[in-house]
Write a structure and sequence with these properties.
It is a single chain. The chain is α+β, with helices and mostly antiparallel strands and 384 residues long. The chain has three domains: 165 residues, no CATH class; 74 residues; 118 residues, Heat Shock Protein 90 (2-Layer Sandwich), CATH 3.30.565. It has twelve helices and five strands. It has a five-stranded mixed beta sheet with strand order 1-2-3-5-4, covered by helices on one side. Strand 2 and strand 3 form a beta hairpin. Helix 4 runs antiparallel to helix 6. The two termini are 65 Å apart.
């Protein structure tokens, strides 16, 4: 049923064209008196049909079909001006044809169509019975208005299509930027994990070497520990190669240690110096957290405050971090704008960090106004 309705709507203009042709034919066949054409009623009816029916081919020949309407009308006027003078259907067909010519996408064809309309209208006006000099100006002007209406409609359609294209392009650019943000954040997470794992492996290798040096060099235990050392050093070398592949050619290696929740005070001081009043509260023991979780929690707070500075126009922010044996819960709340249309890419990175640990993230307008970012990082299975 829906398909039938859609096809019916698509064929609606064609139905109107046929109805126009039928009405014109009936009017011509039933006309009489001095204003009737000097031909048989059937011929007059066919003439009326010949003016209107070319509009049915407007989709296949968008230029030729309306030109054919005007060619038929001008030809009939030259044959007998009374064919056109009293034909309402021919007048409507001419207006429709002028509108279609004005709406052509090709400006050159549209201008040529205007010339056809004006030329045909002048021919028809001069062939009207009892025409005056004013008719030669007024009749072309009327149809020129229809052509201008078609031009205006074409311009509106082009503007709408251009707006849709800009919106689609902006959406594609946003999606590309989001994908890039995800990729960059994943690389950053990989570097941080590299530092953490490399440090742990280094400690293991050093401790293994220290134990091996206390054992007789010919013993099986010393050989096994030597194998452990070599495996550890090989793993560290492979990790450095992989990290080098992730780093951009113009990017230097980070030499400073990765920050954790213990450095939140420094971060808050920096944000305060930037002009945002921040209140920090940390509940629970943060010292014993797994290093990767500790770094990610710091980065989440950092992104939340950066988001507030860049997009919120806020005067105050609250940072609350709560740690227990099961999870780390982070909340960054401000009193600024709740709608953060331009803050999506940073939140994409936060979402990636939370997803690594199977946590939860909520970001949006807070109750009572402002913006709230809440993240939960589960610790089950991560503590030593």
């Amino acid at each position: 049923m829906t398909g039938l309705l859609q096809r019916a709507r698509g064929r609606g203009p064609d139905v109107l064209v046929v109805a126009l042709a039928v009405a014109g034919a009936l009017a011509a066949a039933l006309s009489g008196g001095e204003d009737a054409p000097g031909v048989a009623p059937g011929v007059a009816a066919l003439a009326a049909v010949a003016v209107a029916l070319p509009l049915l081919a407007r989709r296949r020949w968008p230029f030729g079909a309306p030109v054919a309407v005007w060619a038929a009308g001008a030809g009939l006027a030259l044959a007998d001006g009374r064919f056109i003078s009293n034909s309402v259907s021919s007048y409507v067909a001419g207006m429709a044809a002028a509108f279609l010519l004005g709406s052509l996408r090709d400006p050159a064809r549209a201008r040529l169509g205007l010339a056809v309309v004006l030329g045909g209208a002048v021919v028809i006006a001069t062939q009207l019975p009892d025409h005056s000099a004013g008719d030669v100006v007024a009749v072309p002007a009327i149809f020129a208005v229809a052509w201008l209406a078609g031009t205006a409609q074409r311009q509106r359609a082009e503007q709408a299509e251009a707006a849709e294209e800009r919106a689609a392009r902006a959406e594609r650019e946003r999606e590309a930027a989001a994908r890039l943000a995800v990729a960059e954040e994943r690389v950053r997470i990989a570097r941080e994990l590299h530092d953490i794992v490399a440090h742990a492996v280094s400690v293991m290798v050093l401790q293994t070497g220290a134990v091996r040096h206390r054992l007789p060099p010919e013993g099986e235990d010393a050989a096994a520990l030597r194998q452990v050392e070599e495996t550890g050093r090989g793993a560290m070398a492979e990790m450095r190669k992989l990290l080098g592949a992730l780093r951009r050619p113009d990017e230097d290696a980070e030499l400073a240690p990765q920050p954790g929740l213990g450095r939140l005070g420094e971060l808050v001081d920096e944000v305060r110096r930037a002009g945002l009043d921040v209140e920090l509260r940390v509940d629970g023991p943060a010292a014993g957290l797994p290093e990767a979780v500790d770094v990610s929690a710091y980065r989440i707070v950092q992104e939340g405050l950066t988001n507030t500075l860049k997009h919120a126009h806020a005067s105050h922010a609250d940072v609350h971090v709560r740690c227990d044996e099961h999870e780390v819960r982070i909340e960054v709340r401000d009193d600024g704008a709740g709608d953060r249309g331009g803050a999506g890419h940073g939140l994409v990175g936060v979402r990636e960090r939370v997803a690594v640990y199977g946590g939860d993230l909520h970001a949006g307008t807070a109750e009572g106004g402002g913006f709230a970012l809440t993240a939960r990082l589960p610790l089950d299975g991560l503590r030593a």
